[in-house]
User: Fold this.
Amino acid sequence: MPAKAAQHGPKGVGHLDMRDIEGCLPPKLHSFSRQVLEIYLMGHMTTAEFRRWFHMPNSEYLMLGDCIAQKVDPHYVPEAKLPSSITLKPNTL
Assistant:
């Protein structure tokens, strides 16, 4: 079981919330993708599962899911490097 827990990025972060990933999200997120994101942030879904399901209603969400996974899961190997305008530091407000 420890190996599976390591795949859950949110469990390792603990303090992450929606403010930490705002730079990755569109102004209006599809309700299915929002549900998948909430499940992922609660630690009930692996990063691989999140990446598979998050973009289902909109293929344009593929890169958004990659951005979110980079911010949430320290073990995630990104498809693309985040632009310098998006910080990987958690929101401290």
